[in-house]
């Protein structure tokens, strides 16, 4: 039983079990909740045409992250349990457990036998508990890294098996001898007389060859089937995340180490591996669009000074390595100035970089030097010389390598030994082409393991180094999931060596390792709580990246209704970095909700100034301008949205949707101004530019409404029907269509059916009952209408207009006591409205509550002293009271 794997996997599961109750945080929302590729309406094939976030790969705004297999797992999660986070987190934890088990298996496969078990246990526990993995496991979007790592490890293990069977095929005499025996026999037939004894030998050899050939074919198939499987798994890993392809480079280095003395045929694998790597990379990047990231994502990439770029990019891998050594602090985001750039030669971080790279190069040189073979230890297809001994003295015949003179009698096949036996022939010469070679090691040496560990640490990280292309981040913790395997392997190797060498200090060593493991485990569990919700995540990142963390924290607090805290967070973020358009935009929304219109206008204008393509800022600015009675300015702002270019934007879908929304808002503004024909032109323009992901029924519905107002009823009916087809659950379309056909008395019953259908679809929508009530009033069914109005007001108790409508309906239905109830509600909602007070006084007057009615009349007159209706009603009341 593999106790190392069981122990490591159990630890991995236990440490991350506290993520099961976590929600969707940060990038999870964009990758899952707003990703159209998860919706059943999206064809499965589209997943292979879009990037990780659901944007077409051909779009200029695509992130370029092609991970269709990871998206497919998200979609399967969605089909099973929708947007319930538990299932998504459970899958991530299981994947981490699987990756941990595979890592332990790799460790045992390659480490020297003498320390394999100890090193595998230490490395596996460290890999299971390392806090650097929390982002990959706790954040659902980290699944791409987990899947890629699993495919990476499976591909490598399969390649290890390929090397094993290849070495059996080429280095084991039982499999390699037959091909040489045939050649030997042909040469023998030419040079030696054909005698009866020779025929017997030939027949025996042919039987042996046929048996060996079958065995050889079986091994040969295993050699190349494992090779092909390794390549396929590498491609699978790349389709989970781009770094999966790096396994081919790791396998290449492993092969060089394990068969560094093999003859040239063994390098066929390396040649094919190189060709497969090039072909896969070409297929991945052919025709692809290199995304253009914002300056804040990777400031160094936009730096003009070459020295600053060079020194900083050389230091960032060192910084990542230090996070592996000491994983504190950790942050969801390391963009902007979270890691200050190295701007000069005298920066002390350059010394750290020099020591880091010098240490790696020195280690590689020393290890490679110690691996250089010594003469006579590895012989490869040298000419074999048979040494003839005196037949009379019955001495053995031995065979030597012509190069190093080592004796290899035991490596000959039975046929070959028989053919070289001097008792069968007194010939003084024979040639043997059997492989006199020591079989390659099945496990790496200590030095080879160090080289391999550094390979596993470095190669998967190469795509993130900005060496080949600029990336959209400074540091990304989840990208260290695979490189951390090399770090853990290296740690386990040295720890196991110390365990073996210093046997008397094992007790102390165990205590130290237990303390380290306990500290790492505690850090992992604690960090998982940071990923529990967005507020905890962003607060934890404030010391590392204040502007980004505070800006996001403000959005979370704003959504939670904690407006004062949210405003403080927004303003602190802007104090660190004043040019963050998103933060200005979010602050503007907060100020708009508090009716601080002038401040909101200023915030939206700043957002547009710092990012002129932020379409949502234009729309909200126009809304605020309308509220501020500056409609002409709002019209100008909305007209600008139509001219915005969305090329290269990260979220192209949002931008295109905002442009259509701006047209609808502009049309609504013209409708309010009574410019219906102009509004119709704008709505028609919106209908011709609807993106696939936008709800088409919304545009069709406003077209139907406008045509209805223009008395073009037939056209309006066509658009309303189109809206109902586009969105069968769109309540506004049913209500609008019902109001349209209700004008025709002969279709009154049909209209009522549409109102009832809307009521069935949205039983808790106040607008449904309000419009149904209007329809019933039109039919003079006042009592039923009053019930509908009352239901609408109950569903929206804070809606002033609905309360007034309910009161009026009760009065029309001759239910004055219930009308009094709703007039009181209206006064409570707007106590300083003179009309409200006057209406309440009138219903109290009607209900015989004269004193209270007089008080409300008088309060109304204090607000509007010259209101003739209130004065008349008050005089009548005084007449009754006297």
UniProtKB/TrEMBL annotation:
Annotated pathway: Protein modification; protein glycosylation
SMART domains: TPR
GO molecular function, one term: dolichyl-phosphate-mannose-protein mannosyltransferase activity
DUF1736 domain boundaries: 289-360
Intracellular or extracellular location(s): Endoplasmic reticulum; Membrane
Annotated Gene Ontology cellular component terms: endoplasmic reticulum membrane
Primary enzyme class: transferase
Record-listed E.C. numbers: 2.4.1.109
Catalytic activity: a di-trans,poly-cis-dolichyl beta-D-mannosyl phosphate + L-threonyl-[protein] = 3-O-(alpha-D-mannosyl)-L-threonyl-[protein] + a di-trans,poly-cis-dolichyl phosphate + H(+); a di-trans,poly-cis-dolichyl beta-D-mannosyl phosphate + L-seryl-[protein] = 3-O-(alpha-D-mannosyl)-L-seryl-[protein] + a di-trans,poly-cis-dolichyl phosphate + H(+)
Keywords: Endoplasmic reticulum, Membrane, Repeat, TPR repeat, Transferase, Transmembrane, Transmembrane helix
InterPro entries cross-referenced by the UniProt entry: TMTC_DUF1736, TMTC_O-mannosyltransferase, TPR-like_helical_dom_sf, TPR_2, TPR_rpt
TPR repeats: 547-580, 581-614, 660-693, 697-730, 766-799, 834-867
Membrane topology, from the record: Multi-pass membrane protein
UniProt keyword annotation of Transmembrane helix present: yes
Domain of life: Eukaryota
Transmembrane domains' residue ranges: 86-104, 146-165, 223-240, 245-262, 306-326, 354-373, 450-473, 479-499, 511-529
Function in brief: Transfers mannosyl residues to the hydroxyl group of serine or threonine residues.
Family label: Belongs to the TMTC family.
Name of protein: dolichyl-phosphate-mannose--protein mannosyltransferase
């Amino acid at each position: 039983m593999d106790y190392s794997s069981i122990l490591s996997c159990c630890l991995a599961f236990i440490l991350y079990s506290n993520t099961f109750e976590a929600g969707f945080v940060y990038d999870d929302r964009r990758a899952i909740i707003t990703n159209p590729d998860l919706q059943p309406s999206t064809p499965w094939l589209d997943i292979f045409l879009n990037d990780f976030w659901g944007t077409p790969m051909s779009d200029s705004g695509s992130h370029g992250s092609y991970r269709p297999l990871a998206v497919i797992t998200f979609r399967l999660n969605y089909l099973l349990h929708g947007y319930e986070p538990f299932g998504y987190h459970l899958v991530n934890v299981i994947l981490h457990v699987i990756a941990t088990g595979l890592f332990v298996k790799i460790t045992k496969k390659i480490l020297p036998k003498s320390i394999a078990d100890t090193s595998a246990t230490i490395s596996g526990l460290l890999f299971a508990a390392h806090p650097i993995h929390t982002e990959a496991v706790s954040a659902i979007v980290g699944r791409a890294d987990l899947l890629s790592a699993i495919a990476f490890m499976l591909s490598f293990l399969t390649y290890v098996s390929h090397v094993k069977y290849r070495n059996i095929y080429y280095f084991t005499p039982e499999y390699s001898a037959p091909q040489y025996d045939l050649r030997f026999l042909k040469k023998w037939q030419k040079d030696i007389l054909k005698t009866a004894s020779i025929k017997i030998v030939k027949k025996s050899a042919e039987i042996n060859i046929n048996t060996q050939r079958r065995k050889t074919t079986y091994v040969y198939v295993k050699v190349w089937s494992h090779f092909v499987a390794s390549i396929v798994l590498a491609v699978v890993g790349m389709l989970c995340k781009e770094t999966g392809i790096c396994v081919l480079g790791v396998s290449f280095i492993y092969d060089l180490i394990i068969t560094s003395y093999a003859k040239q045929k063994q390098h066929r694998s390396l040649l094919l591996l190189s060709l497969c790597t090039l072909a896969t990379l070409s297929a991945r990047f052919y025709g692809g669009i290199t995304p253009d990231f914002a300056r804040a994502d990777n400031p160094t990439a936009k730096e003009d000074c070459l020295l600053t770029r060079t020194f900083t990019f050389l230091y960032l891998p060192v910084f990542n390595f230090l996070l592996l050594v000491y994983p504190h602090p950790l942050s969801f985001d390391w963009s902007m100035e979270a890691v200050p750039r190295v701007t000069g030669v005298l920066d002390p971080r350059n010394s750290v970089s020099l020591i880091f790279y010098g240490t790696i190069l020195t280690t590689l040189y020393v290890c490679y030097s110690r691996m250089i073979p010594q003469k006579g230890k590895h012989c490869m297809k040298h000419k074999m010389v048979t040494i003839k001994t005196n037949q009379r003295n019955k001495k053995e015949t031995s065979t030597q390598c012509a190069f190093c003179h080592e004796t290899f009698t035991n490596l000959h096949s039975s046929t070959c030994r028989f053919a070289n036996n001097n008792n069968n022939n007194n010939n003084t010469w024979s040639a043997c082409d059997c492989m006199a070679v020591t079989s390659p090691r099945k496990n790496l040496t200590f030095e080879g393991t160090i080289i391999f560990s550094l390979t596993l640490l470095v190669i998967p990280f190469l795509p993130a180094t900005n060496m080949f292309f600029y990336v959209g981040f400074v540091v990304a913790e989840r990208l260290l999931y695979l490189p951390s395997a090399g770090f853990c392997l290296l740690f386990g190797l040295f720890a196991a060596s110390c365990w073996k060498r210093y046997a008397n200090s094992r007790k102390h060593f165990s205590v130290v390792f237990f303390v380290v493991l306990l500290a790492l485990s505690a850090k992992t569990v604690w960090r998982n709580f940071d990923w529990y919700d967005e507020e905890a995540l962003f607060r934890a990142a404030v010391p590392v990246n204040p502007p980004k963390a505070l800006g996001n924290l403000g959005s979370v607090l704003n959504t939670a209704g904690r407006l004062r805290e949210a405003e403080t967070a927004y303003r602190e973020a802007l104090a660190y970095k004043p040019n963050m358009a998103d933060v200005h935009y979010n602050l503007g929304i907060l100020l708009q909700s508090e009716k601080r219109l002038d401040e909101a206008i200023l915030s939206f204008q700043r957002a547009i100034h710092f990012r002129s393509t932020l379409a949502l800022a234009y729309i909200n600015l126009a809304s605020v301008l309308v509220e501020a009675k500056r409609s002409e300015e709002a019209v100008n702002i909305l007209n600008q949205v139509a001219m915005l270019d969305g090329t290269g934007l990260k979220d192209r879908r949002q931008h295109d949707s905002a442009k259509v929304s701006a047209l609808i808002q502009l049309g609504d503004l013209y409708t309010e101004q009574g410019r219906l024909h102009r509004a119709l032109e704008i709505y028609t323009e919106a209908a011709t530019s609807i993106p696939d992901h936008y709800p088409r029924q919304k545009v069709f519905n406003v077209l139907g409404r406008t045509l209805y107002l223009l008395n073009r009823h037939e056209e309006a009916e066509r658009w309303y029907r189109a809206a109902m087809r586009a969105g069968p659950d769109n309540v506004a379309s049913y209500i609008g269509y019902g109001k349209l056909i209700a004008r025709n008395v002969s279709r009154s019953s049909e209209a009522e059916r549409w109102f009832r259908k809307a009521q069935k679809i949205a039983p808790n929508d106040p607008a449904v009952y309000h419009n149904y009530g209007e329809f019933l009033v039109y039919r003079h069914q006042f009592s039923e209408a009053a019930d509908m109005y009352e239901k609408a007001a109950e569903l929206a108790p804070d809606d002033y207009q609905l309360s007034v409508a309910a009161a009026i309906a009760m009065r029309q239905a001759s239910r004055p006591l219930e009308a009094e109830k709703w007039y009181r509600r209206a006064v409570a909602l707007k106590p300083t409205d003179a009309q409200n007070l006057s209406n309440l006084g009138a219903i109290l007057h009607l209900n015989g509550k004269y004193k209270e009615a007089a008080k409300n009349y008088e309060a109304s007159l204090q607000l509007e002293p010259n209101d003739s209706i209130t004065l008349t009603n008050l005089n009548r009341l005084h007449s009754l009271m006297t």
